[in-house]
Amino acid sequence: EILSVDAVKMVVRAESMVTMEQLVAATLPLGMLPKVLPPYKGVTVGGAAMEGALGASSHKHGLFLDACRSVTLLLGDGRVEECFRDATHASHPSPESPRGSTGGRGPPTLFSALSGSFGSLAVLVLAEIEVN
Prior knowledge:
Low-confidence stretches: 91-103
Number of strands: 6
Number of helices: 5
Structural class: alpha+beta
């Protein structure tokens, strides 16, 4: 499910099973697209973030995960952590929290280790994705 589209902050909060097709359908009518958009419309937010997906703008914005400000993860011990790409965004956490959240703030090192992990480190619950 797409939880929010914020045209002021230029971010979309989406759960992991949202496909790129659904993400585009929610943002394109507002004149926005994700900064990194993998070419296959069936790829999910969780899959793109955890596999290291690329898009046509990757030469400028990097991997799909690089276009995410934060991710909420379910760790193997049952904790729910929100991890931020960098300290800039960590100082302004989103007010929405997933059910069962411990309110934890995961380290940036965990965030940077996710790309290419294919879910072996944690389960991605939702992501805050930058759009332009």
